[in-house]
Amino acid sequence: MNTELPQDDQNEEQAAAEQTPAEETVPAPEETVSAEESAPAAEETVVEVVEPVEVVEPVEVVETVEVVETVEVVIETAEETPVAEETSAEEVAAPQEESTEQEVSAPQLTLGESESDVEDGSEEEVEEKPYVEPTIRGRIDKFGTAMGTGRRKTSVARVRIKDGNGEFVVNGRPLEDYFCLERDQKMIKAPLNAVEELGKVDIWVRVHGGGITGQTGAVVLGIARALQVKNPTNHPTLAEGGYLTRDSRMVERKKYGQAKARKSFQFSKR
Fold first, then answer.
1. pLDDT digits over 5-44, tens only?
2. Are strands 146-152 and 139-140 parallel, antiparallel or unpaired?
3. Pairing state of beta strands 155-163 and 201-208?
4. Chain centroid, CA 214 distance in Å
5. pTM for the full model?
6. What sign does the CA torsion over 58, 61, 65, 70 have?
7. Residue spans of alpha helices (H) in 26-114
8. Are 64 and 72 spatial neighbours (Cβ–Cβ below 8 Å)?
9. Is 5 exposed, middle or buried (0-12, 13-18, 19+ CB in 10 A)?
């Protein structure tokens, strides 16, 4: 059988074959265009996603606020520190002044004593003690002569003082003849120098017993007591110098079995 198609049919088939590839190739650019369009769309979506994720502005704002707050705090502290230093300096100065006042006015605190006890003690110290009149151990006779008796060890001296020109007699002899040592002469004149009566009064002394040192001490005490009774205002000066104090030291007694009070006989072992 003859399979060949007529020429018209062949031409139609060729035309159809030519058209089919053209139709198939035309949508290709549409696909590329869609891909290109889809790419920007994808990019846009990425940008949109990245923007909300990167919260840059809120973080920066918070950080700036914190920095500002710290700066303000530093400024406040810097402003407050001088005031604190001034107050501390005043507080330190105040206790020092109080401590100095307490040292001057009150005694130091001790264990077992309260503040009230310390205050009471300070008040007691401030209170003046009552005046006690001194004991006068001399006397004045009817002629206005002051008399005093002094003792030292076993010596006894009886002294008489009267206003005069400075005469000094001891057992009928001048002072320099009876007491030859300059030390004894200075000791006897010491009470007169203390009250500034040397050379203004006449002194007669009778002394016996003991030795030169004992008699010197007895004469000093007798002169001081006579000056006290002659003018009681001389008491503080004489008492401060120790001229009115009786020296009670005596010779220690001898013990049996020994040569003296402390000395022993020679000991022989064999």
1. 455 566 666 666 565 444 444 444 444 444 444 444 444 4
2. antiparallel
3. antiparallel
4. 51
5. 0.53
6. positive
7. 27-53, 56-105
8. no
9. exposed
